[in-house]
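User: My instructor asked us to take a sequence, write out its structure as tokens, and then describe one feature of it. I'm not sure where to start. Here is the sequence I was given:
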Amino acid sequence: MSKEKLCIFRNLFYNIRMRTLDTSVISDCVYRLAGKAGITLTPACLAALERAKKSETGAAHFALDTLLRNAGTAQENHMPACQDTGMAVVLLELGQDVHLTGMPLADAVNDGVRRAYADGYFRKSICDPLTRVNTGDNTPAHLHTEIVPGERVNVTFLPKGFGSENMSRLYMLTPSEGRAGIVNAIVETVRLAGSRPCPPVYVGVGIGGAFDSCAFLAKKALTRDVGTRNARTDVASIEEEALEKINALGIGAQGFGGRVTALGVACEIAPTHIAGLPVAVNIQCHCIRCEKESL
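Assistant: Let's start with the prediction itself. The structure tokens for your sequence are:
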């Protein structure tokens, strides 16, 4: 068989077995998700804020009512829900049976972000860390990709504001500190943050992995709906205990005091080294914006 015929046969074989997807489709998906996320809080977030409002009185009740009215106004008028429209965090679950064509994947994601932030009149917040020169279009996005079974591409867009991001912490605990050390790290992070991350907060926690992957687990946890629990009962119990202790701090909505300092705690877990117990705590403000789509 000639080299040319072999190439044609190989292409036909892969086209039969694999789904072909042009990355412009991913770019358009990121554009849609970013445009919606900039103006809309998640339904689970709105429901949690409503529950918190009903449980509070005085200044905390007023603060929560104001936050909810702000969210409603933003959605009705197609305006940003917060002036900090965030760093664009994009999580892609890429099916191993998908063959991508077109522009490079990162370029496609950045193209979607660039167009969405321009058309939505969202603040462009990304700059060089030393010169502080703004990139002008909120790119590059913070892109995470994971190869998964199947022929679907799952896209998650999380605009991450830095008032809350700056309050996040990473702990390299020793194994002997165990469960109690994990809970203490979570609660300490929120206590030290005080009112600065615009509470009531949502707390994403990574347990295990390594220095870098632990932080990603914490970020990934924030893409879960508020109020959901980890499938592992031992991890879910950490979520519940940490939430109870955080809300006992009395920081309250916007720092006015009250029963609700956090709307939820979400933990993700991964195996780690026998000598370590990494714990990352990623704080999200009350303005939880996260959109997902499957292609």
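For the description part of your assignment, you could build on this observation: Residues 3-39+81-159 form one domain. Try explaining in your own words what that tells you about the chain.
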